[in-house]
Amino acid sequence: MNRRNIDIERRSRRLVEGRRGEGPVVYWMSRDQRIADNWALLWAQQEALVRRKGLLVVFCLITDYPGATWPHYRFMLEGLLELQEKLRPLNIGFRLLEQSPEEILPGFLQQLDAHALVSDFDPLRIKQQWKKQLGSSLPMPFYEVDTHNIIPAWTISNKKEYAAYTLRPKVNRLLADYLSDIPAVQYHPFEHPASPAAVDAGNFIEKLLKQSPTGKSRLQPGEAAAEGAARNFLHNKLQDYSSSRNNPCLDGQSGLSPYLHFGQLSPQRLAWMVSQSELPADIKEPYLEELVVRRELSDNFCYYEPAYDCFAGFPEWARKTLDQHRYDPREHLYSLSEFEAGGTHEKLWNACQRDLLQSGKLHGYLRMYWAKKILEWTSDPETALHYALTLNDRYSLDGRDPNGYAGIAWSIGGVHDRAWRERAVFGKIRYMNEAGCRRKFDVDGYIRSVFDKK
Ligand SMILES: Cc1cc2nc3c(=O)[nH]c(=O)nc-3n(C[C@H](O)[C@H](O)[C@H](O)COP(=O)(O)OP(=O)(O)OC[C@H]3O[C@@H](n4cnc5c(N)ncnc54)[C@H](O)[C@@H]3O)c2cc1C
Questions:
Q1: Do residues 202 and 67 share a domain?
Q2: pLDDT tens digits, residue range 76-125?
Q3: Which of 206, 240, 275 is the endpoint of a domain?
Q4: 413 CB less than 6 Å from ligand 1?
Q5: What CATH number has the domain bearing residue 415?
Q6: N or C: lower Cβ tally within 10 Å for the chain?
Q7: pLDDT at 197 > cutoff 70
Q8: 317 and 432 inside one domain
Q9: Is residue 442 situated within a structural domain?
Q10: CA gap 156, 296 in Å, rounded
Q11: Among 279, 264, 289, which Cα is nearest to 364's?
Protein backbone atom coordinates (compact mmCIF):
# COMPACT_ATOMS: atom_id res chain seq x y z
CA MET A 1 0.00 0.00 0.00
CA ASN A 2 1.27 3.48 -0.81
CA ARG A 3 1.07 6.46 1.55
CA ARG A 4 -2.19 7.70 -0.01
CA ASN A 5 -3.91 4.33 0.51
CA ILE A 6 -2.64 4.12 4.07
CA ASP A 7 -3.91 7.63 4.83
CA ILE A 8 -7.34 6.76 3.50
CA GLU A 9 -7.59 3.30 5.04
CA ARG A 10 -6.54 4.23 8.56
CA ARG A 11 -9.41 6.67 8.91
CA SER A 12 -12.02 4.01 8.12
CA ARG A 13 -13.59 1.08 9.89
CA ARG A 14 -16.14 -1.49 8.85
CA LEU A 15 -19.47 -1.31 10.69
CA VAL A 16 -21.22 -4.14 8.84
CA GLU A 17 -19.95 -7.13 6.89
CA GLY A 18 -22.10 -8.01 3.92
CA ARG A 19 -22.35 -9.14 0.36
CA ARG A 20 -21.15 -6.70 -2.27
CA GLY A 21 -23.68 -5.85 -4.96
CA GLU A 22 -23.05 -5.18 -8.65
CA GLY A 23 -24.02 -1.49 -8.47
CA PRO A 24 -22.08 1.64 -7.50
CA VAL A 25 -20.23 2.51 -4.32
CA VAL A 26 -22.43 4.92 -2.39
CA TYR A 27 -21.22 7.63 -0.03
CA TRP A 28 -24.00 8.73 2.32
CA MET A 29 -22.77 12.23 3.10
CA SER A 30 -23.97 13.62 6.40
CA ARG A 31 -21.65 15.64 8.63
CA ASP A 32 -18.95 16.50 6.11
CA GLN A 33 -20.66 18.35 3.30
CA ARG A 34 -17.75 19.05 0.97
CA ILE A 35 -15.85 17.55 -1.93
CA ALA A 36 -12.36 18.83 -1.19
CA ASP A 37 -10.37 17.29 1.63
CA ASN A 38 -12.98 14.68 2.40
CA TRP A 39 -11.46 11.33 3.42
CA ALA A 40 -14.86 9.60 3.21
CA LEU A 41 -15.27 10.61 -0.44
CA LEU A 42 -11.67 9.59 -1.12
CA TRP A 43 -12.33 6.24 0.53
CA ALA A 44 -15.47 5.74 -1.60
CA GLN A 45 -13.58 6.63 -4.77
CA GLN A 46 -10.67 4.35 -3.96
CA GLU A 47 -13.09 1.47 -3.39
CA ALA A 48 -14.99 2.26 -6.61
CA LEU A 49 -11.77 2.48 -8.65
CA VAL A 50 -10.40 -0.82 -7.39
CA ARG A 51 -13.74 -2.57 -8.02
CA ARG A 52 -14.41 -0.71 -11.31
CA LYS A 53 -17.71 0.69 -10.10
CA GLY A 54 -19.62 3.96 -10.42
CA LEU A 55 -19.67 6.42 -7.54
CA LEU A 56 -22.69 8.12 -6.03
CA VAL A 57 -23.05 10.63 -3.21
CA VAL A 58 -26.41 10.73 -1.43
CA PHE A 59 -27.70 13.22 1.09
CA CYS A 60 -30.78 12.47 3.20
CA LEU A 61 -32.71 15.61 3.95
CA ILE A 62 -35.09 15.64 6.88
CA THR A 63 -36.94 18.87 7.45
CA ASP A 64 -37.47 18.35 11.19
CA TYR A 65 -33.88 17.82 12.35
CA PRO A 66 -33.89 18.48 16.12
CA GLY A 67 -33.16 22.12 16.91
CA ALA A 68 -32.57 23.18 13.29
CA THR A 69 -34.24 26.33 11.95
CA TRP A 70 -34.43 28.05 8.57
CA PRO A 71 -31.07 29.86 8.82
CA HIS A 72 -29.41 26.47 9.39
CA TYR A 73 -31.23 24.88 6.48
CA ARG A 74 -30.49 27.81 4.19
CA PHE A 75 -26.77 27.69 4.96
CA MET A 76 -26.68 23.94 4.41
CA LEU A 77 -28.84 23.84 1.26
CA GLU A 78 -26.89 26.58 -0.48
CA GLY A 79 -23.75 24.61 0.29
CA LEU A 80 -25.32 21.45 -1.17
CA LEU A 81 -26.27 23.28 -4.38
CA GLU A 82 -22.64 24.22 -4.89
CA LEU A 83 -21.55 20.69 -4.07
CA GLN A 84 -23.86 19.15 -6.67
CA GLU A 85 -22.47 21.44 -9.36
CA LYS A 86 -18.92 20.50 -8.48
CA LEU A 87 -19.59 16.75 -8.51
CA ARG A 88 -20.98 16.73 -12.06
CA PRO A 89 -17.70 17.37 -13.95
CA LEU A 90 -16.05 14.71 -11.76
CA ASN A 91 -18.58 12.15 -13.09
CA ILE A 92 -19.77 11.47 -9.56
CA GLY A 93 -23.54 11.27 -9.10
CA PHE A 94 -25.52 13.17 -6.47
CA ARG A 95 -28.93 12.24 -5.08
CA LEU A 96 -30.98 14.09 -2.56
CA LEU A 97 -33.34 11.79 -0.69
CA GLU A 98 -36.17 13.39 1.21
CA GLN A 99 -36.39 11.09 4.18
CA SER A 100 -34.51 9.94 7.21
CA PRO A 101 -31.53 7.74 6.21
CA GLU A 102 -32.49 4.67 8.23
CA GLU A 103 -35.90 4.69 6.52
CA ILE A 104 -34.98 5.41 2.94
CA LEU A 105 -31.46 4.08 2.41
CA PRO A 106 -32.08 0.29 2.72
CA GLY A 107 -34.64 0.25 -0.13
CA PHE A 108 -32.71 2.76 -2.22
CA LEU A 109 -29.47 0.81 -1.95
CA GLN A 110 -31.18 -2.49 -2.64
CA GLN A 111 -32.73 -1.13 -5.85
CA LEU A 112 -29.28 0.05 -6.93
CA ASP A 113 -27.70 -3.24 -5.86
CA ALA A 114 -25.05 -1.03 -4.27
CA HIS A 115 -21.56 -2.42 -4.00
CA ALA A 116 -20.88 -0.90 -0.58
CA LEU A 117 -22.02 1.99 1.59
CA VAL A 118 -19.71 4.44 3.33
CA SER A 119 -20.53 7.37 5.58
CA ASP A 120 -18.70 10.02 7.56
CA PHE A 121 -18.37 9.93 11.36
CA ASP A 122 -20.48 11.87 13.84
CA PRO A 123 -20.54 11.20 17.58
CA LEU A 124 -24.01 12.68 18.15
CA ARG A 125 -26.81 10.41 19.35
CA ILE A 126 -29.16 10.80 16.40
CA LYS A 127 -26.43 9.96 13.88
CA GLN A 128 -25.25 6.98 15.92
CA GLN A 129 -28.82 5.68 16.13
CA TRP A 130 -29.36 6.03 12.38
CA LYS A 131 -26.21 4.03 11.74
CA LYS A 132 -27.17 1.35 14.24
CA GLN A 133 -30.59 0.93 12.64
CA LEU A 134 -29.11 0.95 9.16
CA GLY A 135 -26.54 -1.62 10.18
CA SER A 136 -29.24 -4.12 11.05
CA SER A 137 -31.02 -3.83 7.69
CA LEU A 138 -28.28 -3.56 5.07
CA PRO A 139 -27.23 -6.52 2.92
CA MET A 140 -24.02 -4.82 1.68
CA PRO A 141 -20.87 -3.84 3.63
CA PHE A 142 -21.10 -0.55 5.51
CA TYR A 143 -18.03 1.52 6.39
CA GLU A 144 -17.43 4.67 8.38
CA VAL A 145 -14.66 7.22 7.81
CA ASP A 146 -13.77 9.94 10.30
CA THR A 147 -13.08 12.94 8.13
CA HIS A 148 -13.91 15.54 10.79
CA ASN A 149 -11.21 14.71 13.31
CA ILE A 150 -7.62 14.78 12.19
CA ILE A 151 -6.99 11.60 14.16
CA PRO A 152 -10.08 9.34 14.14
CA ALA A 153 -12.06 9.60 17.37
CA TRP A 154 -11.75 5.84 17.96
CA THR A 155 -7.97 5.93 17.39
CA ILE A 156 -7.01 8.92 19.51
CA SER A 157 -8.63 7.47 22.62
CA ASN A 158 -10.76 4.49 23.60
CA LYS A 159 -12.40 6.22 26.55
CA LYS A 160 -13.94 9.45 27.75
CA GLU A 161 -11.08 11.83 28.47
CA TYR A 162 -11.04 13.70 31.75
CA ALA A 163 -9.84 17.04 30.36
CA ALA A 164 -7.68 18.68 27.71
CA TYR A 165 -4.54 17.76 29.65
CA THR A 166 -5.28 14.04 29.30
CA LEU A 167 -6.07 14.22 25.56
CA ARG A 168 -3.24 16.62 24.60
CA PRO A 169 -0.35 14.12 24.98
CA LYS A 170 -2.28 11.59 22.88
CA VAL A 171 -2.80 14.20 20.17
CA ASN A 172 0.83 15.26 20.31
CA ARG A 173 2.00 11.67 19.89
CA LEU A 174 0.04 11.15 16.66
CA LEU A 175 -0.41 14.58 15.12
CA ALA A 176 2.79 14.78 13.10
CA ASP A 177 1.86 11.51 11.43
CA TYR A 178 -1.81 12.36 10.74
CA LEU A 179 -1.58 16.07 9.95
CA SER A 180 -0.71 16.01 6.27
CA ASP A 181 -1.82 17.52 3.02
CA ILE A 182 -4.92 15.78 1.63
CA PRO A 183 -5.09 14.36 -1.90
CA ALA A 184 -7.71 15.61 -4.35
CA VAL A 185 -10.62 13.56 -5.58
CA GLN A 186 -10.21 12.66 -9.28
CA TYR A 187 -12.43 12.45 -12.34
CA HIS A 188 -14.26 9.16 -11.89
CA PRO A 189 -13.88 6.91 -14.94
CA PHE A 190 -16.82 4.53 -14.26
CA GLU A 191 -20.42 5.50 -14.90
CA HIS A 192 -22.96 5.63 -12.11
CA PRO A 193 -26.40 4.32 -13.08
CA ALA A 194 -29.61 6.35 -13.20
CA SER A 195 -31.06 5.57 -9.82
CA PRO A 196 -34.49 5.30 -8.30
CA ALA A 197 -35.94 8.31 -6.49
CA ALA A 198 -33.92 10.59 -8.73
CA VAL A 199 -35.34 13.94 -7.67
CA ASP A 200 -33.57 16.81 -9.40
CA ALA A 201 -31.65 17.93 -6.34
CA GLY A 202 -30.92 21.40 -7.70
CA ASN A 203 -34.57 22.18 -8.49
CA PHE A 204 -35.71 20.72 -5.23
CA ILE A 205 -33.26 22.74 -3.16
CA GLU A 206 -34.06 25.93 -5.04
CA LYS A 207 -37.77 25.38 -4.42
CA LEU A 208 -37.09 24.87 -0.71
CA LEU A 209 -34.92 27.98 -0.55
CA LYS A 210 -37.73 30.03 -2.08
CA GLN A 211 -39.99 28.98 0.81
CA SER A 212 -37.43 30.18 3.34
CA PRO A 213 -38.79 33.04 5.44
CA THR A 214 -35.25 34.25 6.15
CA GLY A 215 -33.39 36.24 3.52
CA LYS A 216 -29.81 35.67 2.47
CA SER A 217 -27.47 33.84 4.87
CA ARG A 218 -25.49 36.26 7.04
CA LEU A 219 -22.35 34.38 6.18
CA GLN A 220 -21.72 33.30 2.58
CA PRO A 221 -22.24 29.51 2.63
CA GLY A 222 -20.41 26.81 0.69
CA GLU A 223 -17.02 25.28 0.17
CA ALA A 224 -15.59 28.11 -1.94
CA ALA A 225 -16.59 30.77 0.58
CA ALA A 226 -15.23 28.62 3.42
CA GLU A 227 -11.87 28.33 1.73
CA GLY A 228 -11.77 32.08 1.11
CA ALA A 229 -12.63 32.81 4.74
CA ALA A 230 -9.92 30.41 5.95
CA ARG A 231 -7.31 32.11 3.72
CA ASN A 232 -8.40 35.53 4.87
CA PHE A 233 -8.03 34.48 8.51
CA LEU A 234 -4.62 32.98 7.87
CA HIS A 235 -3.24 36.03 6.07
CA ASN A 236 -4.89 38.82 8.05
CA LYS A 237 -5.87 37.66 11.52
CA LEU A 238 -3.93 34.65 12.72
CA GLN A 239 -0.95 36.73 13.84
CA ASP A 240 -3.12 38.57 16.38
CA TYR A 241 -5.27 35.59 17.42
CA SER A 242 -3.76 34.92 20.83
CA SER A 243 -3.79 38.57 21.91
CA SER A 244 -7.27 39.42 20.64
CA ARG A 245 -9.38 36.24 20.72
CA ASN A 246 -10.70 36.79 24.26
CA ASN A 247 -11.88 40.32 23.62
CA PRO A 248 -15.41 40.42 22.17
CA CYS A 249 -14.87 44.04 21.07
CA LEU A 250 -12.17 42.90 18.64
CA ASP A 251 -12.90 40.65 15.70
CA GLY A 252 -10.12 38.32 16.84
CA GLN A 253 -11.58 34.84 16.37
CA SER A 254 -11.57 33.12 13.00
CA GLY A 255 -15.37 32.98 12.67
CA LEU A 256 -14.98 29.65 10.85
CA SER A 257 -17.10 27.47 13.15
CA PRO A 258 -20.25 27.43 10.93
CA TYR A 259 -18.14 26.15 8.00
CA LEU A 260 -16.54 23.54 10.23
CA HIS A 261 -19.89 22.54 11.72
CA PHE A 262 -21.52 21.92 8.32
CA GLY A 263 -18.38 20.24 7.04
CA GLN A 264 -17.93 22.85 4.31
CA LEU A 265 -14.36 23.28 5.54
CA SER A 266 -12.05 20.45 6.57
CA PRO A 267 -10.52 20.89 10.03
CA GLN A 268 -7.46 19.05 8.78
CA ARG A 269 -7.06 21.42 5.80
CA LEU A 270 -7.32 24.40 8.14
CA ALA A 271 -4.85 22.92 10.63
CA TRP A 272 -2.51 22.03 7.77
CA MET A 273 -2.65 25.59 6.38
CA VAL A 274 -1.92 27.00 9.84
CA SER A 275 0.92 24.57 10.50
CA GLN A 276 2.51 25.37 7.12
CA SER A 277 2.28 29.14 7.62
CA GLU A 278 5.58 30.94 8.14
CA LEU A 279 4.41 32.56 11.37
CA PRO A 280 6.33 31.59 14.51
CA ALA A 281 5.19 28.53 16.48
CA ASP A 282 4.06 30.56 19.49
CA ILE A 283 1.56 32.35 17.23
CA LYS A 284 0.26 29.17 15.59
CA GLU A 285 0.04 26.97 18.69
CA PRO A 286 -2.80 28.73 20.53
CA TYR A 287 -4.98 28.41 17.44
CA LEU A 288 -4.08 24.75 16.90
CA GLU A 289 -4.85 24.08 20.57
CA GLU A 290 -8.45 25.23 19.98
CA LEU A 291 -8.89 23.75 16.54
CA VAL A 292 -7.33 20.39 17.28
CA VAL A 293 -7.20 19.62 21.01
CA ARG A 294 -10.38 21.39 22.20
CA ARG A 295 -12.42 20.45 19.16
CA GLU A 296 -11.39 16.79 19.20
CA LEU A 297 -11.97 16.72 22.97
CA SER A 298 -15.60 17.71 22.30
CA ASP A 299 -16.01 14.83 19.87
CA ASN A 300 -14.42 12.53 22.43
CA PHE A 301 -16.91 13.71 25.08
CA CYS A 302 -19.97 13.20 22.89
CA TYR A 303 -18.73 9.88 21.53
CA TYR A 304 -17.95 8.25 24.86
CA GLU A 305 -20.53 9.98 27.09
CA PRO A 306 -24.06 8.94 26.07
CA ALA A 307 -25.51 11.59 28.42
CA TYR A 308 -23.54 14.45 26.82
CA ASP A 309 -26.55 16.78 27.01
CA CYS A 310 -27.85 15.73 30.44
CA PHE A 311 -27.04 16.34 34.10
CA ALA A 312 -25.97 12.67 34.28
CA GLY A 313 -23.12 13.47 31.87
CA PHE A 314 -21.44 15.85 34.35
CA PRO A 315 -18.48 14.52 36.38
CA GLU A 316 -19.27 13.14 39.81
CA TRP A 317 -17.76 16.07 41.76
CA ALA A 318 -19.88 18.50 39.74
CA ARG A 319 -23.14 16.58 40.21
CA LYS A 320 -22.43 16.36 43.92
CA THR A 321 -21.73 20.06 44.38
CA LEU A 322 -24.69 21.11 42.21
CA ASP A 323 -26.94 18.77 44.23
CA GLN A 324 -25.69 20.30 47.48
CA HIS A 325 -26.66 23.76 46.18
CA ARG A 326 -29.86 22.68 44.43
CA TYR A 327 -32.12 24.44 46.91
CA ASP A 328 -30.06 27.62 47.38
CA PRO A 329 -32.27 30.68 46.95
CA ARG A 330 -31.91 32.32 43.54
CA GLU A 331 -32.05 36.11 43.41
CA HIS A 332 -33.48 36.13 39.88
CA LEU A 333 -35.44 33.50 37.99
CA TYR A 334 -36.34 33.68 34.30
CA SER A 335 -38.39 31.53 31.98
CA LEU A 336 -37.10 30.27 28.63
CA SER A 337 -39.07 32.95 26.78
CA GLU A 338 -37.70 35.71 29.04
CA PHE A 339 -34.17 34.54 28.30
CA GLU A 340 -34.98 34.17 24.64
CA ALA A 341 -36.26 37.76 24.47
CA GLY A 342 -33.17 39.06 26.29
CA GLY A 343 -35.32 40.30 29.17
CA THR A 344 -33.09 39.80 32.22
CA HIS A 345 -32.02 42.51 34.68
CA GLU A 346 -28.42 42.48 33.31
CA LYS A 347 -27.70 44.61 30.25
CA LEU A 348 -24.63 42.62 29.29
CA TRP A 349 -26.54 39.33 29.24
CA ASN A 350 -29.36 40.89 27.22
CA ALA A 351 -26.80 42.27 24.76
CA CYS A 352 -25.30 38.79 24.35
CA GLN A 353 -28.71 37.31 23.65
CA ARG A 354 -29.53 40.05 21.16
CA ASP A 355 -26.14 39.60 19.49
CA LEU A 356 -26.82 35.87 19.17
CA LEU A 357 -30.23 36.50 17.58
CA GLN A 358 -28.95 39.20 15.25
CA SER A 359 -25.75 37.62 14.06
CA GLY A 360 -26.28 33.87 14.63
CA LYS A 361 -23.10 33.84 16.69
CA LEU A 362 -21.87 34.79 20.12
CA HIS A 363 -18.22 35.44 20.85
CA GLY A 364 -16.47 32.45 22.48
CA TYR A 365 -15.65 34.31 25.72
CA LEU A 366 -19.22 35.58 26.08
CA ARG A 367 -20.65 32.13 25.43
CA MET A 368 -19.17 31.03 28.77
CA TYR A 369 -20.59 34.01 30.69
CA TRP A 370 -23.95 33.64 28.89
CA ALA A 371 -24.34 29.96 29.86
CA LYS A 372 -23.15 30.44 33.45
CA LYS A 373 -25.73 33.16 34.07
CA ILE A 374 -28.43 30.79 32.87
CA LEU A 375 -27.30 28.42 35.64
CA GLU A 376 -27.49 31.25 38.18
CA TRP A 377 -30.96 32.43 37.09
CA THR A 378 -32.91 29.19 36.78
CA SER A 379 -34.45 26.95 39.44
CA ASP A 380 -32.07 23.97 38.96
CA PRO A 381 -29.16 22.80 36.79
CA GLU A 382 -31.34 20.55 34.62
CA THR A 383 -33.52 23.52 33.63
CA ALA A 384 -30.43 25.65 33.02
CA LEU A 385 -28.96 22.97 30.77
CA HIS A 386 -32.20 22.60 28.85
CA TYR A 387 -32.51 26.38 28.30
CA ALA A 388 -28.87 26.86 27.28
CA LEU A 389 -28.97 23.94 24.83
CA THR A 390 -32.28 25.05 23.35
CA LEU A 391 -31.16 28.63 22.76
CA ASN A 392 -27.68 27.72 21.55
CA ASP A 393 -28.98 25.11 19.12
CA ARG A 394 -31.79 27.32 17.88
CA TYR A 395 -29.86 30.53 17.30
CA SER A 396 -26.19 29.70 16.76
CA LEU A 397 -25.39 28.94 13.17
CA ASP A 398 -22.76 26.52 14.48
CA GLY A 399 -25.20 24.99 17.02
CA ARG A 400 -26.13 21.28 17.36
CA ASP A 401 -22.41 20.52 17.38
CA PRO A 402 -20.29 18.46 19.80
CA ASN A 403 -18.44 21.71 20.59
CA GLY A 404 -21.72 23.22 21.77
CA TYR A 405 -22.64 20.23 23.96
CA ALA A 406 -19.15 20.16 25.48
CA GLY A 407 -19.05 23.97 25.88
CA ILE A 408 -22.38 24.08 27.69
CA ALA A 409 -21.48 21.05 29.83
CA TRP A 410 -18.21 22.83 30.72
CA SER A 411 -20.01 26.04 31.70
CA ILE A 412 -22.86 24.51 33.70
CA GLY A 413 -21.53 21.10 34.71
CA GLY A 414 -17.75 21.40 35.13
CA VAL A 415 -16.99 18.97 32.28
CA HIS A 416 -13.25 19.13 31.41
CA ASP A 417 -12.82 21.68 34.22
CA ARG A 418 -11.91 21.39 37.90
CA ALA A 419 -13.49 22.41 41.21
CA TRP A 420 -13.21 26.09 42.23
CA ARG A 421 -13.98 28.06 45.39
CA GLU A 422 -17.45 27.14 46.65
CA ARG A 423 -20.28 29.66 46.44
CA ALA A 424 -24.09 29.76 46.37
CA VAL A 425 -25.96 28.07 43.49
CA PHE A 426 -22.75 27.24 41.56
CA GLY A 427 -21.19 25.18 44.34
CA LYS A 428 -17.67 24.43 43.08
CA ILE A 429 -18.47 25.10 39.40
CA ARG A 430 -16.31 27.94 38.03
CA TYR A 431 -18.08 31.26 38.45
CA MET A 432 -18.20 34.17 36.01
CA ASN A 433 -19.85 37.54 36.29
CA GLU A 434 -20.08 40.95 34.67
CA ALA A 435 -17.35 42.40 36.90
CA GLY A 436 -14.94 39.77 35.55
CA CYS A 437 -15.93 40.70 32.00
CA ARG A 438 -15.25 44.36 32.80
CA ARG A 439 -11.70 43.45 33.77
CA LYS A 440 -11.23 41.78 30.36
CA PHE A 441 -12.87 44.12 27.86
CA ASP A 442 -14.94 47.26 27.31
CA VAL A 443 -18.34 45.91 28.36
CA ASP A 444 -20.19 49.18 27.71
CA GLY A 445 -18.60 49.45 24.27
CA TYR A 446 -19.75 45.91 23.48
CA ILE A 447 -23.30 46.62 24.68
CA ARG A 448 -23.43 49.81 22.61
CA SER A 449 -22.16 48.01 19.51
CA VAL A 450 -24.95 45.42 19.81
CA PHE A 451 -27.78 47.86 20.42
CA ASP A 452 -26.55 50.30 17.75
CA LYS A 453 -26.50 47.55 15.11
CA LYS A 454 -29.21 48.04 12.50
C1 LIG B 1 -21.55 27.81 26.23
C2 LIG B 1 -20.77 27.48 25.00
C3 LIG B 1 -21.42 27.10 23.85
C4 LIG B 1 -20.70 26.78 22.69
N5 LIG B 1 -21.38 26.39 21.59
C6 LIG B 1 -20.70 26.05 20.46
C7 LIG B 1 -21.40 25.61 19.30
O8 LIG B 1 -22.62 25.51 19.30
N9 LIG B 1 -20.68 25.29 18.20
C10 LIG B 1 -19.31 25.39 18.17
O11 LIG B 1 -18.70 25.08 17.14
N12 LIG B 1 -18.64 25.77 19.27
C13 LIG B 1 -19.28 26.12 20.41
N14 LIG B 1 -18.57 26.51 21.52
C15 LIG B 1 -17.10 26.48 21.49
C16 LIG B 1 -16.42 27.80 21.03
O17 LIG B 1 -16.93 28.88 21.75
C18 LIG B 1 -16.62 28.01 19.54
O19 LIG B 1 -16.14 26.88 18.84
C20 LIG B 1 -15.90 29.23 18.98
O21 LIG B 1 -16.27 30.38 19.68
C22 LIG B 1 -16.27 29.33 17.50
O23 LIG B 1 -15.83 30.53 16.93
P24 LIG B 1 -14.56 30.59 15.97
O25 LIG B 1 -14.67 29.58 14.89
O26 LIG B 1 -14.40 32.01 15.58
O27 LIG B 1 -13.45 30.12 16.99
P28 LIG B 1 -11.85 30.26 16.95
O29 LIG B 1 -11.45 30.86 18.24
O30 LIG B 1 -11.40 30.90 15.72
O31 LIG B 1 -11.39 28.74 17.02
C32 LIG B 1 -11.22 27.94 15.85
C33 LIG B 1 -11.95 26.64 16.00
O34 LIG B 1 -11.45 25.93 17.14
C35 LIG B 1 -12.51 25.21 17.75
N36 LIG B 1 -12.74 25.73 19.10
C37 LIG B 1 -12.51 26.97 19.57
N38 LIG B 1 -12.84 27.05 20.87
C39 LIG B 1 -13.32 25.84 21.22
C40 LIG B 1 -13.84 25.29 22.41
N41 LIG B 1 -13.93 25.99 23.54
N42 LIG B 1 -14.27 24.01 22.41
C43 LIG B 1 -14.18 23.26 21.29
N44 LIG B 1 -13.69 23.73 20.13
C45 LIG B 1 -13.28 24.99 20.10
C46 LIG B 1 -13.75 25.45 16.89
O47 LIG B 1 -13.86 24.40 15.97
C48 LIG B 1 -13.43 26.78 16.24
O49 LIG B 1 -14.17 27.01 15.05
C50 LIG B 1 -19.28 26.83 22.69
C51 LIG B 1 -18.62 27.21 23.87
C52 LIG B 1 -19.35 27.52 25.00
C53 LIG B 1 -18.62 27.91 26.25
A1: yes
A2: 999 999 999 999 999 999 999 999 999 999 999 999 999 999 999 999 99
A3: 206
A4: no
A5: 1.10.579.10
A6: C
A7: no
A8: yes
A9: yes
A10: 9
A11: 289
Mean pLDDT score, 325-342: 98
| Whether residue 80 is found in the same domain as residue 202 | yes
CB of 257 closer than 6 angstroms to any ligand 1 atom? yes
Q: What percent of the chain has pLDDT over 70?
A: 98
Distance between CA atoms of 143 and 128, rounded to whole angstroms? 13
Domain limits at 397?
311-452
- Rounded CA separation 398/411 (Å): 17
User: Which phi and psi (to 5°) does residue 144 adopt?
Assistant: -130, 140
**Atom 32 (ligand 1) nearest CA:** 291
If asked whether residues 317 and 195 sit together in one domain, one would say: no
Domain count, the chain: 2
Residues 318 and 446 grouped into a single domain: yes
User: Is there a domain that residue 88 lies in?
Assistant: yes
Give yes or no: residues 315 and 194 share one domain: no
Identify the residue whose C-alpha is closest to ligand 1 atom 7: 404
Give tens-digit pLDDT for 231-262.
999 999 999 999 999 999 998 999 999 999 99
> Is there an atom of ligand 1 within 6 Å of 291 CB?
yes
Taking the C-alpha atoms of residue 371 and residue 124, their distance in angstroms, rounded to an integer, is 21
Other CB atoms within 10 Å distance of the CB of residue 355: 24
Ligand 1: does its nearest atom lie under 6 Å from the Cβ of 368? Answer: yes
- Report whether pLDDT(3) > 90: no
Q: Which of 251, 247, 150, 183 is nearest to 5 (CA)?
A: 183
Q: Report the pLDDT value the prediction gives residue 146, as an integer from 0 to 100.
A: 98
Of 88, 143, 50, 123, nearest to 295 by C-alpha is 123
Pocket test for ligand 1, best of 32, 124, 403 (most atoms within 8 A of CB): 403
> Given the CA of residue 370, which atom of ligand 1 is nearest to it?
1
Instruction: Determine the distance separating the centroid of ligand 1 and the alpha carbon of 433, expressed in angstroms.
Output: 20
- Has residue 380 been placed in a domain? yes
We report the CATH number of the domain holding residue 103 as 3.40.50.620
* Domain assignment of residue 274, yes or no: no
Tell whether ligand 1 has an atom less than 6 A from the beta carbon of residue 371: yes
Give the three-class secondary structure for 452: helix
